[in-house]
Automatic annotation (TrEMBL):
Keywords: Signal. The keyword Signal applies. This is Fibronectin type-III domain-containing protein. Gene3D superfamilies: Immunoglobulins. It comes from the Bacteria. The lineage of its organism: Bacteria, Pseudomonadati, Bacteroidota, Flavobacteriia, Flavobacteriales. InterPro entries: FN3_sf, Ig-like_fold. Residues 1-19 form the signal peptide.
Amino acid sequence: MKKLIYISIALLVVSCSSGGDSSEEKKASNPEKAVLVFPENNSECLEGQIINSQKSTVNFKWSKANSADSYDISIRNLNDQTVKLHTTTNTSLDVEIDRGTPYSWYVVSKSKKGSTTAKSDTWKFYNAGEGVTEHVPFPAEIVAPLYNETITVSNGKVTLDWDGSDVDGDIDSYEVFFGEVNPPGSFQTNLQESVLNDVSVSSGKTYYWKVKTKDGQGNVSYSDVFTFEVN
């Protein structure tokens, strides 16, 4: 009788151990996000191989991510919003891009052992051009409300929040375009901070907005049009 009890306990232990190992193995197979290295964030990229007056080859670099077998690199031209997608098993890649142009980029880590992926932070940089002494500000990036987000407000007010940056560090002001139609019209000008509080909204309506960034030299950039809905 005692022998049967010992066997039952042993089987229970083996069963529990097997389930735990499987869960840990699955977790370990999920790739971590890569840490971007170069081109550096909010900087001017002066390195690379010049092809001609319009093009150069830049070596994009990032750190190795644990459990990652390959990486998808996404490079967006912030002037015309076109995107270049590349896949590699290395942690660096030479890519031909336009000179005198602002870009954003990020890397997605992937593993052959599962469908889970991990996305890195998104960095922005300006690829140097011929004789460029000043730079257009990067297009503003949304912070809140999130794109296509449905929000609930209790006082009929919402805060528009964005992030502005410029290689020269001389952003002078922002202009917010806001309304119920797309494209939205000018709403408030000469803003010194990258936030606009107490914007009146109504329940059940969809709103559109974008941001114009102006630097001290008079250069301007426009963000994408963002949209959100109010409950």
